[in-house]
Every structure is written in structure tokens, then in C-alpha cells.
Amino acid sequence: MKKIAVILSGSGVFDGTEIHEAVLALLAIEQQGASWYCFAPNIDQYQVINHLNGEVSHEIRNVLVESARIARGNIFDVATLNINDYDALLVPGGFGAANNLSDFALHGSACQINEDVKQACQAFAQANKPAGYLCIAPTLIPQIYGPGAKATIGNDPDTAAAFNAMGGEHIQCPVDDFVLDQKRRLLTTPAYMLATNISEAATGINKLVRELIKLA
Questions:
Q1: Listed residue (6, 16, 3, 1) closest to 121, CA to CA
Q2: Each residue of 30-63: b (16+ CB within 10 Å) or e?
Q3: Which of 173, 85, 73, 76 is nearest to 133 (CA)?
């Protein structure tokens, strides 16, 4: 059975992992006959958002602890991720990817990636193991794969421009498809960067995961 490492960034679209994307991806992994193993950085969230009213909540939450909600407690510190144990990587989106895994939401093309996350993702890249990034998570790719990496966040012009400014090559893509960088064995899909409902998000995610498992 192929084993897929999944890096989460909290719990909730506005300050952590996009939950629909994560659950759809975990389900798709199982439906393709593979198994998933969740990881997250053991750090405080950049901020906490009240998902009922969209306001900032002045409290401190831990990314690993919050991510455990999605993984039903079956999750580990990303610093312990040994890529020799896994066949592929998957990173869902949500603002946590841009605020907790990195600071892209604050600094755009000048962003930095959390060091433990960066080391884990680069290890998959250097080992030529396939990886899939959903939604806004592809903004991590240029710093992980270097200049020329092909990926999509859909068609948002500002995010695409930042991706290109970091050295990547952004490719426009509809919500129901994915982009494959064959050379790097790298897959991306817009998911909720474009999706207006969970069914639309599922279409692209299912296609990406199917190809990811095939490449693994």
C-alpha cells in the first residue's frame, strides 16, 4: 500500500487548513487504495479567526493541536517526517498555508517558509518523489523546487504574479483539472481558489490524487 504524507496548517479556512480540501484529499487517497499520514508544524498560529463572524479572536492556538482536529488525533510534528517512509506528499490549502506554513499572506513574493515544513517538502523534491499542492499551497513551490517550477493557483492575477516573481511558472487552470510538472513530478489544482462549492473542489482534487498515487 502506498503511503502519502499530508501536511496540515491548522483547522479552518481563514486561519488554518481548508477542511473540505483536506477531507476530500484524505478520502481520495483511501479510495485510490493508499494510506495517509498527517503532519503539521508544532508552532503557534499566526492568528485565530472566528469563523462565524470573520473577526480576529485574540487567543493563541497551536497549529499541530488544531490540525489534530482534522486528523482525529492521528498526526505528528512535521519535524519528525522521514521521507524514506512515504511515497508521496500532499499539501492542502487554506489561509494556514499562507500564514502558518509560510508568511506569504503578509510578504507575498518575499515570503519565507517555516523551516521544518521547507525541509520536509524539499526532501520529497530532492528524492524525486511526487507531490501535490492544493489551492493557495502552491505559493510554497518556487522556494522548494527552484526556478522554472510549473504550477497553478487557478487564475488570480496577483497571486500568479507573485508566484512568477519568485521564479515559478504559473499556468492558468480550471477548477476541475490539475497541472502536472512532469520533470518535477509536481501536481497542483486550484480547489477553493476557484471552487464555489464542495463538489467543484472535489473534481480537481480527485483527479490530482488519482495521478499522484499513479506516480508514487
A1: 6
A2: eebebebbbbbbbbebbbbbeeeeeeeeeeebeb
A3: 173
Residue 73: CB atoms within 10 Å? 8
Under a CB-based contact definition with an 8 Å cutoff, are residues 188 and 90 in contact?
Answer: no
Q: Give the three cell numbers for residue 118.
A: 521547507
Supply the residues annotated as catalytic.
135
Domains of the chain in start order, with CATH, are 3-215 (3.40.50.880)
Average pLDDT of adjacent 10-residue blocks, the chain of 216 residues: 98 98 98 98 98 96 98 98 98 98 97 98 98 98 97 97 98 98 98 98 98 98
Q: How many helices (H) and strands (E) does the chain have?
A: 8, 11
By three-state DSSP, how is residue 186 classified?
strand
Q: Which residue has the cell 499556468?
A: 171
**Sequence-ordered list of residues with C-beta below 8 angstroms from that of 123, at least 6 positions apart, any chain:** 81, 83
Q: What is the model's pTM?
A: 0.98
